[in-house]
């Protein structure tokens, strides 16, 4: 409602301004048309140079007045454009092959104007001034493909956002992997005054695939050449960045450099800081032609409108075809072709100061660019909650949006063709990283993990994973980073993120503290067929055990496990503190069972199960410790899943220090009260959704 009122006030102000300016202009001109109390004609026919009243001073005043008239008329036209935007102009049509647009503008500052004004062009409601106005949108293009490049883009974007003051419009030329990762990231990031458009890189491959390229970037390293065709036709200028760039200042300072372009200058580039194009790095070193040291294309300013008029597409293609007759392939991808074009047409380039692209690689002159680091340039649901509610913090967690980075490391897996494949699903925080290698040794199948980390912890995890031969040897483990926000551990959100990105027909819903028995992956795939999970609603239960020993000789068979149970080395899970959680599994029957057997749901039952991928999600209201799995098993029972215990499967919980959330649960009375309140509300929701059948949950809770 406030947003609507604010919009109406802006509309009224713009309307009054539009009506007042002509009147003010007329008064200004009328007052200015008197000299010594007498009217002075502005007509050139009435004021001849030979008139005694005509002087050089009056001529200057009249010229100044005419300039002011033109300025007022220009302001009037700008206000008309703003007024039309405030009335709700339909989105402009954007030509190109991009598929999706994501706008993350929130109600901050001039956000209402920004929503209307951020279009695929550089038109701004600010006048064209030598400096970048606050409301002017800065356009940035990035080519990004694959998992590693997507991770680099996040660092680049964060560095830009840290310093920026202007609205930003990112144009991401991305493959399907990068688009999936970055679309989710930006949707969950919700940064104000940021818009993202995606362009399908795979559709552009035919434009550059004819160029042989030795550079590690492959075909994607050539796609900056076709930006004049790829980006919207009405986009006039854009900053193009490599994914490994980091900014140390406001990007608006770089955007302002466009105003320094003169004549036919259409490319802004920094001189290459290595000796590559000088051709003296080794014997018989033969680089592509370049002007002097050549130019580095890690940072490019492109005047797209002028490039199109110059027929840039034809220009670079002819140059590339000619040079390839002798060079056979490019060594530095698009950079070689840009430099060959500039060699022939040096008037095209405006040389940027080198601090705009400091190249920190071996054999460069980057130290000449700076003396100090400082020199481098490079929610409606919440409003409905009662803040006086003692459980407010619990309730708001359900609506918190967490920035999410999917596939943080390289992931590559094709599910088995027999439709029996199973993915292990789990979630963890930084203090459970040590379990990853052990799980990978016990489970050879695909894994989907959601990790709850801060930005700094994500980098620590990256170093940890890259230093692990076990983890680096597994490409079928998907790591999804959910960034920290709020005071509670969002356990069920994490589970849902990991579940959502499972690519196999079935999921083993586990926890990170459990080690599955050796061979469980293959055993579950056989059980899927045996129990016909594809055509029935079944939840296969993997019995859970625990040890109090940090060093355990892991049992290699059911017989060995039973022996350890009898000796007291192992226990049924939570036997000492929470018997109800797993008692319905009927461990006494399991000891001698040789075939799967069915068990009934009971209050507080929370087994670890294997289900189809289309099973219900976990309920997000449960955060931290308590009832997060119980509620999910209750939902499965309400949807008439059968619970089937597998006779030859088991998993063992490894000991660890108590989590922060369980400590809060045990020590904080209000925490326990709020959990009880959330349980009651969940049961009421179940009754509304499932009717009479859900009454048993209320009865069971009262009797337990």
Short description:
The chain is of the alpha/beta class and 704 residues long. It is built from 24 helices and 23 strands.
Please characterize this protein's 3D structure.
The protein folds into two domains: 138-368, Alpha-Beta Complex (Spore Coat Polysaccharide Biosynthesis Protein SpsA, Chain A), CATH 3.90.550; 399-699, Spore Coat Polysaccharide Biosynthesis Protein SpsA, Chain A, CATH 3.90.550. It has 24 helices and 23 strands. Strands 11-14-13-12-15-21-17-22-20 form a nine-stranded mixed beta sheet. Strands 3-6-5-4-7-9-8-10 form an eight-stranded mixed beta sheet, sandwiched between helices. Helix 10 (312-327) crosses helix 11. The protein has 704 residues and is an alpha/beta fold. Strand 1 (34-35) and strand 2 (38-39) form a beta hairpin. GO terms for molecular function: glucuronosyltransferase activity; xylosyltransferase activity. Keywords: Glycoprotein, Glycosyltransferase, Golgi apparatus, Membrane, Multifunctional enzyme, Signal-anchor, Transferase, Transmembrane, Transmembrane helix.
Write the layout of secondary structure elements.
Blueprint: H1 2-32, E1 34-35, E2 38-39, H2 56-86, E3 98-103, H3 111-117, E4 138-144, H4 146-163, E5 168-174, H5 176-189, E6 194-200, H6 205-208, H7 227-230, E7 237-241, H8 251-255, E8 267-271, E9 295-303, H9 304-309, H10 312-327, H11 334-344, E10 349-352, H12 380-383, H13 392-397, E11 404-405, E12 422-429, H14 435-442, E13 447-453, H15 455-466, H16 469-472, E14 477-483, H17 491-500, E15 506-509, E16 514-516, H18 520-530, E17 538-542, E18 544-546, H19 558-567, E19 571-572, H20 587-592, E20 597-599, E21 608-612, H21 628-638, E22 642-645, E23 651-653, H22 660-667, H23 669-690, H24 695-703
Parallel strand pairs: 4-5, 4-7, 5-6, 8-10, 12-13, 12-15, 13-14, 17-22, 18-23
Antiparallel strand pairs: 1-2, 3-6, 7-9, 8-9, 11-14, 15-21, 16-23, 17-21, 18-19, 20-22
Helix pairs in contact: 1-2, 4-5, 10-11
């Amino acid at each position: 409602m406030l947003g609507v009122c604010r919009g109406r006030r802006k509309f009224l102000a713009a309307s009054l301004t539009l009506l007042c300016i002509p009147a003010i202009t007329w008064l200004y001109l009328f007052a200015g048309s008197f000299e010594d109390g007498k009217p002075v004609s502005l007509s050139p026919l009435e004021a001849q140079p030979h008139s005694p009243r005509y002087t050089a001073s009056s001529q200057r005043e009249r010229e100044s007045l005419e300039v002011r008239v033109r300025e007022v008329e220009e302001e009037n036209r700008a206000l008309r454009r703003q007024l039309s935007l405030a009335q709700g102009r339909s989105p402009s049509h954007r030509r190109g092959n991009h598929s999706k647009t994501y706008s993350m503008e929130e109600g901050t500052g001039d956000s209402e104007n920004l929503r209307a004004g951020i279009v695929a062009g550089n038109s701004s409601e600010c006048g064209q001034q030598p400096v970048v106005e606050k409301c002017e949108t800065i356009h940035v293009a990035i080519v990004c493909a694959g998992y590693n490049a997507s991770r680099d883009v996040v660092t680049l974007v964060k560095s830009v956002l840290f310093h920026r003051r202007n609205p930003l419009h990112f144009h991401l030329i991305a493959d399907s992997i990068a688009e999936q990762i970055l679309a989710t990231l930006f949707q969950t990031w919700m940064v104000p005054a940021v818009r993202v458009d995606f362009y399908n890189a795979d559709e552009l491959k035919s434009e550059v695939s004819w160029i042989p390229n030795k550079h590690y970037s492959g075909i994607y390293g050539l796609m900056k050449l076709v930006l004049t065709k790829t980006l919207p036709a009405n986009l006039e200028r854009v900053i193009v960045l490599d994914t490994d760039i980091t900014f140390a200042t406001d990007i608006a300072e770089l955007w302002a450099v466009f105003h320094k372009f003169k004549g036919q200058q259409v490319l802004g580039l920094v001189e290459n800081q290595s000796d590559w194009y000088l051709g003296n790095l080794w014997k018989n070193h033969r680089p592509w032609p370049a002007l002097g040291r050549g130019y580095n294309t890690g940072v490019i300013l492109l005047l797209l409108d002028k490039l199109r008029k110059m027929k840039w597409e034809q220009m670079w293609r002819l140059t590339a075809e000619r040079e390839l007759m002798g060079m056979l392939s490019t060594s530095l991808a698009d950079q070689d072709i840009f430099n060959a074009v500039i060699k022939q047409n040096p008037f095209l380039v405006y040389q940027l100061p080198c601090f705009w692209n400091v190249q920190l690689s071996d054999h460069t002159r980057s130290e000449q660019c700076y003396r100090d680091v400082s020199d481098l340039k490079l929610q409606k649901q919440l409003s409905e909650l009662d803040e006086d509610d003692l459980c407010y913090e619990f309730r708001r967690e359900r609506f918190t949006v967490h920035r999410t980075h999917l596939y943080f490391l390289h992931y590559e897996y094709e599910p088995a063709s027999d439709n029996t494949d199973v993915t292990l699903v789990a979630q963890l925080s930084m203090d459970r990283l040590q379990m990853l290698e052990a799980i990978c040794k016990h489970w050879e199948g695909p894994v989907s993990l959601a990790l709850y980390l801060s930005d700094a912890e994500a980098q620590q995890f990256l170093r940890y994973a890259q230093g692990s031969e076990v983890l680096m040897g597994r490409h079928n483990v998907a790591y999804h980073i959910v960034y920290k926000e709020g005071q509670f551990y969002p356990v069920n959100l994490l589970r849902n993120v990991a579940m959502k990105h499972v690519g196999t027909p079935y999921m083993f819903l586990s926890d990170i503290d459990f080690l599955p028995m050796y061979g469980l992956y293959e055993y579950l795939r056989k059980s899927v067929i045996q129990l016909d999970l594809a055509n029935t609603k079944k939840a296969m239960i993997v019995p859970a055990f625990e040890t109090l020993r940090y060093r355990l000789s892991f049992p290699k068979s059911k017989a060995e496990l039973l022996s350890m149970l009898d000796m007291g080395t192992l226990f049924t899970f939570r036997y000492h503190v929470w018997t109800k959680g797993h008692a319905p599994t009927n461990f006494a029957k399991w000891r001698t069972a040789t075939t799967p057997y069915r068990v009934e749901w009971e209050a507080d039952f929370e087994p670890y199960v294997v289900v189809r991928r289309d099973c219900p999600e976990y309920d997000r209201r449960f955060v931290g410790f308590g009832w997060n799995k119980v509620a999910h098993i209750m939902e499965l029972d309400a949807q008439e899943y059968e619970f089937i215990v597998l006779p030859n499967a088991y998993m063992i919980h490894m000991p660890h220090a108590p989590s922060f959330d369980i400590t809060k649960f045990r020590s904080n009375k209000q925490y326990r009260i709020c959990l009880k309140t959330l349980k009651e509300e969940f049961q009421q929701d179940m009754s509304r959704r499932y009717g009479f059948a859900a009454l048993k949950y209320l009865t069971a809770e009262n009797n337990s």
